[in-house]
Write a structure and sequence with these properties.
heterodimer; A: alpha/beta; six-stranded mixed β-sheet; globular; B: about 625 residues; five-stranded mixed β-sheet
Chain lengths: ~200, ~625
């Protein structure tokens, strides 16, 4: 069976590694084998970052270009940068947040969105930063909003996981108050996602 | 995570002593061990550098205590002296050196292939194909080390160390461990004067011969689907790519695959058997042709005639992946490398998506120090200083607008290079080095400047942690790896003792610091030896402390009416919290990113940056 490939893209500090860990723990709970390739060190300091999640039997951890089934984009420019991981059947769940690198000129949000749409991929968007602020009071749980949103809009994820798997996984990854807050953030993203399918 | 799997495996193997210096991608091995050290009843330390860590762990293994040392690939260069000697003298208990290599250079100055170190030092190399494999193989590495009373090099790579995978534990951590050592006064063994060394070399070469002769068995060599005309010999993570590539290409049944987990010295018996049974061989390995050379030698020496391919089809630069390995296999078969996956074209955007290299965090003290040193150099009339640099977050000073890192070669290099430059160029030279790097390799070159009458300013950026690798404590932190209080070794005292006029600044106080540094630089101009220590806690640690203790940090904003759009804050500081919205003439501060360091407010010529949300009355505590 072909492995299910999820590329998570964004900026160091946006909680990509945590998102990966939640999916990894959900995979253990669902009895699915997984590899999750992270990037650490210097690249975490506000740099361009990807996490590569591969679900199903196999141990090669890197997703070939064009082989992503789902892209979770925590930031708009980073999603655009990694579009080559998509093929025309890929679903993209994108946070409507454009964070320009310092001292640079960059394409605007509308242009990026229309170019992505022109490729024919299925693009779903929400303002996860805003929703996170509404639910937990800061942008810190935007990653869980995005995960809930992606789960709602992506059939592939739904085939592999029950929602409970993710909620239980959060109990393994977060501690104290963060567990409930992140669950709420996930649910919020999930609700918004359902509205779009 | 692969690194956690390695830590767990080492614990199950019964280690009681572990020492390391942090370095990506190796760091989490020791972090995982430090987190459980007390419960598991083992000793763990962050040493001052890789050589020191190696020596400490080696001493334990000399004395019958199983031990571990871990480092990034370039860390082995620092420890190479003792590595070579350890192979001559051997060990009395299992001793494994983990080298976490970084193919693709995700976080390193090079992508050297440390399997060569095994070849060079006559130390067997064990190499896993996945995190799960690493968990089992680290235990096998300890068995190998115990069997031959010899050090073993365990080579991981970024994609093993930093990949997560479910791992099922196969055994418990032994409760009874040998933690108390015994030193044999075996002078002929431990004192490597030439006469003793010659004897030890014979022992070492005998171990080398026996490993190649006897270890061609699982888990070190595994043959999948034997007897095919075509065979792939794959080492390390390349094996995982090969297996999936064959699956994807529908060619699993056509190939014999040899999984090599002991690439150096290559156990020849099973390999020779495959060579004799096959007509064509492809060797798939990341980076250098270490396996390929040995396989070709084996065929030549045994008169086996067949085609052996490797780096003619498999990339030698960067890391391998499923895609590149699948392409290599198709090229090897003489086919067009047509892949089953069909990527989209890159988007045509105007302007294109800008590069996003890592940047110094909002509130990073290095930003303050860089602004201060440049402003102070101007003030002191120091023309065109050359800034030699080092390895740490502050290396990012090579970027605009700072340009305060003009070299970055290896740990401690800033000061050694500064000395040499000061002897041969006319410009003033400022060596910029981090605190952890200073303890690691900054002391000898600092002494050298004084002794040999060089003339360079030493600027130590002291954020009180080994920050880039994730805030490990060091001799200036006041904590040990196991969380116990430790004596602080003040950097300024060390420099003073050597003979430097030493100045300490708190870069959060920008104006005051500029005055102090300008005074220091004037002294330097007059021919004095000068060192500056800039001490302010890493912003990430300050934010963490604030969150933990419920301290609110102030948040700044730009007052629209006062801002003239001069862009000084944007252009001089490159703070990720200050952005210029598309089409706007004035910058704004992203409140969710601002951590209230106040640098921009001190730099703004129009006093247009003000506190917008007050911090707690004690907010400065977070930075202490």
């Amino acid at each position: 069976m072909a492995r299910y490939n999820i590329l998570v893209t964004g900026v160091g500090g946006q909680g990509l590694l945590t998102l990966g860990r939640v999916v990894g723990n959900a995979a253990i709970l669902a009895g699915i084998d997984a590899t999750i390739a992270e990037t650490h060190g210097l690249s975490q300091r506000g740099g361009s970052l990807i996490v590569q999640i591969r679900l199903g039997d196999g141990e090669s951890p890197l997703i070939p270009r064009g082989a992503a089934d789902l892209i979770i984009g925590m930031e708009v420019l980073e999603t655009a940068r990694r579009i080559v991981y998509a093929n025309k059947n890929t679903r993209i769940a994108m946070n409507k947040f454009l964070w320009p690198p310092p001292l640079t000129d960059y394409p605007d949000l509308d242009q990026v969105i229309s170019r992505i749409k022109e490729t024919g991929v299925k693009l779903y968007m929400i303002d996860a930063n805003k929703l996170s602020e509404e639910v937990v009071g800061s942008v810190i749980s935007a990653n869980m909003v995005m995960l809930g949103f992606a789960y709602a809009v992506d059939d592939g994820l739904k085939k592999l996981f029950e929602k409970e798997h993710f909620l239980k996984a959060m109990e393994r990854v977060f501690r104290g108050k963060a567990v409930e807050l992140n669950k709420k953030a996930f649910e919020k993203g999930y609700e918004e996602g359902l509205k779009q399918v | 995570m692969g690194n956690e799997a390695i830590a767990r495996g080492a614990l199950e193997a019964g280690i009681c002593f572990a020492a390391a210096y942090p370095g990506t991608p190796s760091t989490e091995i020791m972090e995982a061990l430090a987190a459980v050290a007390k419960d598991a009843g083992i000793y763990v330390e962050w040493s001052t550098n890789e050589k020191v860590a190696f020596e400490a762990a080696y001493a334990a293994a000399m004395s019958y205590v199983k031990s571990l040392t871990t480092m990034k690939h370039v860390g082995v260069n620092v420890a190479a002296d003792i590595l070579m000697s350890s192979a001559y003298a051997g060990v009395n208990a299992g001793f494994v050196v983990v080298s976490a290599d970084d193919p693709g250079q995700h976080s390193s100055q090079n992508e050297q292939d440390n399997r060569w170190y095994g070849m060079h030092a006559h130390i067997p190399v064990v190499e896993p194909a996945s995190p799960r494999d690493a968990y089992r193989l680290i235990k096998a590495a300890y068995m190998l080390s115990e069997k031959y009373k010899h050090p073993v090099l365990f080579r991981s790579t970024t994609r093993i160390s930093h990949t997560r995978q479910p791992v099922t534990f196969e055994e418990d951590i032994p409760v009874e461990k040998k933690c108390k050592g015994k030193f044999d006064r075996d002078i002929e063994r431990w004192v490597l004067v030439p006469a003793h060394g010659r004897k030890q070399k014979k022992r070492m070469m005998e171990v080398w011969r026996r490993v190649a002769e006897e270890e061609g068995v699982e888990p070190f060599i595994k043959i999948i689907n034997p007897g095919m005309k075509k065979a792939i010999i794959a080492g390390g993570i390349a094996y995982s790519h090969v297996m999936e590539a064959l699956e994807v290409l529908g060619k699993k049944d056509e190939y014999t695959v040899v999984k090599v987990s002991l690439p150096v010295p290559l156990p020849y018996k099973p390999i020779l058997k495959v060579l004799k049974e096959s007509q064509e061989i492809l060797v798939v390995e990341e980076l250098d042709p270490v396996l390929e050379m040995q396989v070709k030698k084996l065929a030549y020496e045994n008169g086996v005639e067949l085609k052996i391919h490797g780096k003619d089809y498999v990339p030698i630069n960067g890391e391998l992946d499923l895609d590149s390995v699948a392409r290599s296999i198709l090229s090897f078969e003489g086919r067009e490398p047509v892949m089953p996956w069909k990527p989209l074209e890159p988007l045509h955007l105007e302007p294109p998506v800008p590069a996003r290299p890592p940047v110094m965090c909002a509130g990073c003290p290095h930003r303050n120090t860089y602004y201060i040193i440049k402003t102070a150099a101007n003030k002191a009339g120091l023309k065109d200083p050359i800034f030699t640099g080092d390895i740490g977050c502050y290396t990012l000073g090579y970027e605009p607008p700072f340009y305060t890192q003009m070299t970055s070669l290896e740990m401690g290099g800033s000061i050694g290079v500064a000395h040499g430059l000061s002897k041969v160029v006319d410009e003033p030279v400022i060596a910029v080095i981090g605190d952890s790097t200073f303890y690691h390799a900054g002391l000898p070159p600092s002494v050298n400047i004084i002794y040999n009458k060089g003339h360079a300013v030493i600027l130590v950026l002291d954020n009180q942690y080994t920050a880039m690798t994730g805030h490990q404590p060091h001799p200036g932190t006041g904590l040990t790896a196991m969380g116990e209080p430790a004596v602080r070794v003040p950097i300024e005292k060390l420099l003073e003792t050597m003979g430097y006029n030493t100045y300490v600044i708190n870069p959060m106080n920008v104006k005051e610091s500029i005055n102090i540094v300008a005074e220091a630089l004037k002294k330097y101009k007059e021919g004095e030896q000068v060192a500056i220590v800039s001490r302010m806690k890493c912003a990430l640690q300050a934010v963490r402390k604030a969150r933990k203790e419920g301290i609110k940090l102030p948040v700044y904003h730009i007052v629209e009416d006062k801002c003239t759009g001069c862009m000084v804050c944007v252009k001089l500081l490159a703070c990720p919290a200050i952005v210029v919205p598309k089409g706007a003439k004035k910058p704004k501060i992203l409140p969710e990113l601002c951590v209230g360091c106040g640098l921009c407010a001190q730099v703004c010529p129009f006093k247009a940056i003000e506190v917008f949300k007050e911090g707690s009355p004690n907010w400065l505590e977070a930075w202490k």
